[in-house]
Amino acid sequence: MFNLIKFVIFSRIPKRSILFYLGFAIIFGYIGYISYYEAPHYVNVEFKYLSVFYLTMIMAVSPFNTRFGLATKSDSDFLALLPFDDDKIIASLIIGSFVVNVIFLSIFMYWFIEALGIAGVIIVPAFALISSSLPAVLYNLDNKRKILIDIVVIIWFISAIFNFPLSPLSMFYGYSEGYIISYTLAFALFFTALKKFNFSSYSNFTISSEKGEVKEEISFKSSNPFVLTLIRNLRILEIGGRVNWMGVSTFVSRRVELWKVMLGSSIFAVVLYFVLSRTEDLGFTFFYVLFGGWFVMIMISSAAFITEPIWLDLNVMTPEEFARYYLTSKALSIALILSPFAVLSLVLGYIGEALGFVVFIPLSSIFIMSLYARYYQQRYNMPMNVSPIRLLVSLLTSIPLIPLIILSFLPEYLILYAPLILSFVIFYLAISLPFLFSKSYWESTIEKIVTSVT
Amino acid sequence: MECISLRNVVKRFGSITALNNLSFSIPCGGRVALLGPNGAGKSTTMKILAGLLKPDYGEVEIMGMKPGTKEVKKILGYLPEDPMPYRILTVRENLEYIALLRGVSKERVDEMLDFLDLRQYEKIQAGKLSRGNQQKLSLALVLIHNPEIVLLDEPLNYLDIPTQEKVIGILKEMKSTFLISTHIMSIATRLTDHVIMISKGTVIWQGSISELKALGREDEPIESVVARMMRNV
User: Fold this and answer.
1) How far apart are CA A341 and CA A292, in angstroms?
2) Residue A201: per-residue pLDDT
3) According to the model, what pLDDT value does residue B125 have?
């Protein structure tokens, strides 16, 4: 069993990367520990918000792992056929996935330490176990049921912010019950997963069937390649797929109706309006709304190029044409999804944030997707191995966030000062436009893609 | 006139030389099989001709033009090994999307659905199809514009025997120039009349299928002749 667990772990993360991550976690954890005692109180408060937001999102996306956490096709094809009891293989997969999640979460441990002090270390295993067991418990439910359960999970976790002591994250607001509840939940899910998960039924569940016709077909009614690419990207929502600095690895690819997505984000924006219009000191809180938009963009950008049949695109387009149409249409779809929040910002008088949602965040996505295409290649059904280089690339993707943070903390009257807002526009154009027009960048990127992953 | 031509092409990946002064040409209308052991450089050659890779040295021309240009894309169809179409689009959507990008009429979409027996799957997402049906769809996407030059890497992979026969029939009817990379000699003999054999990135033999057969003993299978030639390099 020990060897099986070892196999699961090392088939996901190379040994060198584990050492890198642990080194990273220790150094930043130490910085967080010192900072916890020396930083002003409001900094700790911000990290409490950040930790609750982050852990809730990680738990919320975990059930949507299309291939059960880190279980790969090779696991279904070979691991399941090894002469071991199913129980042992399942336990190894969950425990292996747990160890991998502990390592990933450790990178962000310094946030928790900044918020809780040394107790921030204790919570990591609990949430790693929840995120590795939850997909195994819910794997055979349809998406509607998963979403319903997810809504309950999100409300329960987020309720910590409203001082609900029985939330698994209530420790961030001074309730020790949070530790007990998070560990109880983690072990309950772990043992349920061991009991419920069945490898052979999982394999059957993931084998695609040729039944199930699509009810509403996408109508391509243009001969313009950009319009065609845009129609395609507006009707397909893909999120996750790469491990970025927010630890996201889940990959979801769905056909969607744009109006339904827009309706969802509009309803959320309206709810936010009622909550925020009753909040004092909105400036600080509104940063989290903008950060939410950034998070959505990161999730969508992380999925870029994963299912794209480059061979087919390049049968009809040159590399730079393809990249230009693909990136611009993705950025436009992000702008559309986030547009209700831009309206919300305008209604509440935040002009800079409105621009952030519909201009700066979409332009940032072009920069991020371009870096991912070349330096962090990931294909569908490939195991999500993470290397120090990939993590470094993921860290680089946070560069466009810095001006956004500055923007959200600037006094609103300064936004109307033309040279200032112009400097933001120039920055975001400077990091995105070169990727749309660089022929050599995309020629060599495509060469890298077709020689390393097919 | 030569439709495909490579002269002294070199392609390196780090310290590995994939193609080493590779030179050959195919006349317009020619049907040629590209043979070679694993790692010989067949797929790299196909990708260079399709414009996906650039050679480090040497000259490559498709009907006198540089691979990868818009003009070449209009007349060329390239099928890689293990192709995957747009997995979330349905069979019909895949075909309509590529047809519109290529400026091909929608009637051609229906023709391809019927040619390759894909009609019953037209509303199924490509990612949910069996591997064989994904291969059929990929072939349909590559052939939808009736390309003058066709590059196929293991085109009959995953296809059942009746479908193989159907695809062979379709390809035989086309008047295009073919370069087909394969490991299976029966495919080479049925779809092509000439062979270019490469090993370690260099041409080791080229000629007609009948010349290749003549290199062996009277009762010797052609596979055995090819295996001997590849071993002797």
Assistant:
1) 10
2) 66
3) 94
Instruction: Return the residue matching tokens 């940063």.
Output: A287
The CA distance from B119 to B138, in Å, is 14
What is the reported pLDDT for A383? 62
- How many CB atoms are closer than 10 A to CB B227? 13
Spell out the residues 6+ positions from residue A415 whose beta carbon is closer than 8 angstroms to its own: A351, A352, A407, A421
User: Between A253, A318, A447, which is nearest B70 by CB?
Assistant: A318
For residue A201, give the DSSP letter.
H
How far does B221 lie from chain A, in Å, by closest CA? 34
- List Cα–Cα distances, B23 to A96, A345, B37, B55, B233, in angstroms: 51, 63, 18, 12, 17
Which stretches does DSSP call E strand in B126-199?
A: 149-153, 177-181, 194-199
CA A48 to chain centroid, in Å, comes to 19
> Which residues, at least 6 apart from B112, have a Cβ–Cβ distance to it below 8 Å?
B95, B118, B140, B143, B144
Short-list A125, A126, A99, CA closest to A4:
A99
Distance CA A438, CA A61 (A): 35
Q: What percent of chain B has pLDDT over 70?
A: 100
Angle A251-A256-A258 (CA atoms, 0-180°, nearest 5)?
125
Closest by CA position to A254, among listed A267, A268, A264, A244:
A264
Question: ipTM above 0.90?
Answer: yes
Q: How many residues does chain B have?
A: 233
d(CA B4, CA A288): 58
Q: Which residues contact A283 (CB under 8 A, 6 or more apart)?
A: A408, A409
- Give the model's pLDDT for residue A9: 77
DSSP 8-state code for residue B179? E
**Does the distance separating the beta carbons of A311 and B80 come in below 8 Å?**
yes
Using DSSP, state whether B152 is helix, strand or coil.
strand
3-class SS at A244? coil
- Only one residue has tokens 């060198």, namely A16
pLDDT, tens digit, for every residue of A209-244?
Answer: 556 788 888 988 888 999 999 999 999 998 877 765
Q: Is pLDDT above 50 for B196?
A: yes
Q: Which tokens belong to A63? A: 């059930």
State the sign of the Cα–Cα–Cα–Cα dihedral A61, A66, A68, A74. negative
| Chain A interface, best mutation among B11, B93, B106, B130, by max A CB count within 10 A | B93
Looking at CA atoms only, how far is residue A214 from chain B in angstroms?
6
**How many angstroms away from the CA of A296 is the closest CA of chain B?**
21
Q: B152 has which bridge partners?
A: B79, B180
Q: What pLDDT is stored for residue A196 in this prediction?
A: 79
Question: In chain B, which residue's Cα lies nearest the Cα of A219?
Answer: B93
pLDDT under 50: residue ranges of chain A: 67-68, 207, 246, 453-454
The tally of CA atoms less than 13 A away on the side-chain side of residue B205 is 21
Contact with chain A for residue B69, Cβ under 8 A: yes
Query: In this complex, is the C-beta atom of B102 within 8 Å of any C-beta atom belonging to chain A?
Result: yes
Beta-bridge mates of residue B5: B25, B61
What stretches of A35-77 adopt beta strand conformation (E)? none
Residue B139 has pLDDT above 90, yes or no: yes
